[in-house]
Every structure is written in C-alpha cells, then in structure tokens.
Amino acid sequence: MGNAWWNLTLRFLLEVAALLGLGIAAWSLSEGWWRWVFAPALPLVAAVLWGTFAVLNDPSRSGRAPVPVPGTVRLVLELVILFGGAAGFYLAGHAATGIVMALLIALSYAFSLDRLSWLLRQ
C-alpha cells in the first residue's frame, strides 16, 4: 500500500490543522473561563482518540493499535476529526481556510484509495 511522500506529508499536515481548527472553534464558540478549558481540551481529546483507536497492522501508521478497532470505525474517526477541524475553522470565521482544508482532505483521500479499500476490508 504505497502512498506518495507528498500525500503522507499532506495527511500529517491535515491532522495537525484539524487539531488547530478544533481548538480555534472551541475558543471562538465558548466564552469566559470556559474558553481556557475547551480550547486545549477539544484538540487533546481528538489527538488521544486518533492515537488510541487504530486498525491493527495499519501500514500507514506504526502498525500498533493500543485499542484495535475495525477499519470502518477508524475511517469514521478520521473523517470526523479531519472534517471537524475544517468545520471548526469555518465556524470560527475562517471560512476560506475551512473550505480549502476540506478540499485538501478530499484530495488526500482520493489519492489514498488503496488505503480506503484496505480499511474497509478490516
């Protein structure tokens, strides 16, 4: 299952951007001292979920799965976090960033059809 280096790089950058988008959304959509709780908590929860729930022997990751899940569960988790980050930018008033990010997510998955197929078979 070969992903081009540029797509692996894009995927990593989208993962980081998703966490940022979730944090920005949490900050902008909450008020008062809650901002200081939600802004770091939401990306932290997303990162923990991302790193914890994985498909065993996923060649696009380390292969380790602290909590093994079926491929469809992993795919849904990825899509929720990635598009959640894009939506976060959009909802926080950074519409162009959110839209571009959503398009880049779609592009990355379009060039990862072999991985998508593998995930859906697990």
What brief labels describe this structure?
single chain; 122 residues; mainly alpha; 5 helices; 2 strands; globular
What does this structure look like?
The protein has 122 residues and is mainly α. The protein contains five helices and two strands. The protein has a two-stranded parallel ribbon with strand order 1-2. Helix 3 packs antiparallel against helix 4. It is globular, with a radius of gyration of 15 Å. The protein starts with a helix and ends with a helix. The model has no long low-confidence stretch (mean pLDDT 93).
Distance between the termini: 14 Å
Q: How much of the residues is beta strand, in percent?
A: under 5%
Oligomer class: single chain
| Total beta-strand segments | 2
**Fraction of helical residues:** over 70%
In short:
With about 120 residues, the protein is mainly alpha-helical.
In terms of topology, how is this protein built?
Elements: H1 5-28, H2 34-52, E1 53-54, E2 67-68, H3 71-91, H4 95-110, H5 113-121
Parallel strand pairs: 1-2
Helix pairs in contact: 1-2, 1-3, 1-4, 3-4, 3-5
